[in-house]
Design brief:
Blueprint: E1 2-4, E2 8-11, H1 30-34, E3 44-45, H2 48-56, E4 60-67, E5 71-72, E6 81-86, E7 89-94, E8 103-105, E9 108-117, E10 122-125, E11 128-131, H3 132-144, E12 151-155, E13 162-166, E14 169-173, E15 186-190
Parallel strand pairs: 10-15
Antiparallel strand pairs: 1-2, 2-14, 3-12, 4-9, 5-8, 6-7, 10-11, 12-13, 13-14
Length: about 190
């Protein structure tokens, strides 16, 4: 069985799941399967203690949720401008109902009161760069499966897919682009 959120793809024996599996929406799931590298060219065990110690020092940020919805202005139909006419003259003006925003109301991000580690921080694992949130999800899978290790089993290029093995499952993760501008966000380097 496989599951994905478009950044990570987990593949495992379907007997491991307790809930009903939902069929793939893709008309041809083989396309997904064909993109999973068959080769396993690494055997790099991640230093879990180092990662967990690093996570203790990463600042926490507010978890937010989206409240409300974007409703287009009924006067300007979301354009932000209305046409003003006087005799034979016309002029475009900022919509007086929405002040040029194009919306009568918009959704807002509201803090839930919960905290999470700052997802902007990054971790380099061998030659690829990952969000700490992605690494945190790997740790959560490890804990759920009651496993001791996370092993990097496939990595070819810095910006291509990387596969981690946790017990009987494998997780394909898409790394971030390594750039000079995001070097300052790296909080840990596991090489």
């Amino acid at each position: 069985a496989i599951a994905t959120n478009a950044h990570e793809l987990i593949f495992f024996d379907k007997e491991l799941t307790k809930s009903e599996l939902i069929p793939c929406e893709n008309e041809n799931p083989q396309i997904i399967l064909n993109n999973i590298p068959q080769e396993r060219n690494q055997s790099f065990v991640l230093d879990i203690e180092k990662i967990e110690e690093c996570f203790k020092n990463i600042p926490l940020v507010d978890v937010t949720k989206e409240v409300g919805e974007d409703i287009k202005c009924s006067e300007c139909l979301g354009e932000g401008e209305v046409e003003w006419e006087y005799e034979r003259w016309t002029k475009d003006m900022t919509c007086p109902k929405c002040d040029g925003d194009g919306y009568e109301s918009t959704s807002k991000q509201v803090p839930t009161g919960e905290k999470e580690i700052d997802g902007l921080k990054l971790i380099d694992i061998k030659n690829s760069r990952f969000s700490v949130l992605m690494v945190d999800r790997l740790l959560k899978v490890r804990n759920l499966l009651n496993e001791k290790e996370i092993t990097l089993v496939y990595q070819l290029q810095a910006n291509k897919s990387t596969i981690f093995k946790i017990g009987n499952i494998e997780v394909l993760c898409m790394p971030m682009m390594k750039t000079e501008s995001n070097n300052e966000l790296v909080v840990l380097n596991l090489a």
